[in-house]
Design a protein that fits this description.
single chain, 2 domains
Length: about 170
């Protein structure tokens, strides 16, 4: 007997998204990822499906070489909204840093990744939808992470540093 994946209907996508988000909240990212792949099989350009897929994969990060950073980066590059591309790419970098810190990697070696995350959040802040301060919230979390870990050896004053004066990463 040949096992073959079945395709969900387009009319079932909204309910499937809700289930994927529920599985993420229940800390079952593999289930959420599977559902997102079913959504994308039915509608390959479904933005919420793509976004949730990328987040589901980042939920699985362990800080090891087997983490699928490049796959998530490619997923987030396909998001059609420029704000979302920047914001979610920043989240990717931030989550990668946190996973690698949890795995015991030296904080100072992760500083360039955290800077990339903050650069994305700073750029996203300039194009955020009205009332959406998510990029600011993520920026602030990164600053607090830097402040909480003296092993980052952070010497630059962020208040005086303008990301837009430096070349993009």
């Amino acid at each position: 007997m040949e096992l073959k994946l079945k395709t969900i209907s387009k009319s079932g996508i909204a309910e499937a998204i809700a289930k994927a988000e529920l599985y993420r909240y229940l800390n079952e990212p593999e289930e959420a990822e599977s559902i997102c792949r079913d959504i994308l099989a039915a509608d390959p350009k479904h933005m919420l499906g793509l976004r949730t897929l990328g987040l589901s994969i980042t939920d699985q990060f362990t800080g090891e070489g087997t983490d699928r950073y490049a796959e998530v980066e490619e997923i987030f590059k396909t998001l059609s909204d420029p704000y979302e591309r920047l914001y979610y790419t920043g989240l990717l970098y931030e989550r990668r840093v946190k996973a690698q810190l949890h795995a015991g990697r030296a904080a100072h070696t992760l500083l360039p990744l955290l800077e990339r995350a903050m650069h994305c959040f700073a750029e996203a802040e300039h194009s955020h939808p009205p009332g959406n301060d998510d990029a600011i919230l993520r920026w602030n979390r990164c600053v607090r992470l830097l402040q909480s870990r003296p092993d980052f050896h952070w010497e630059t004053d962020f208040a005086a540093f303008d990301f837009f004066d430096s070349p993009p990463v």
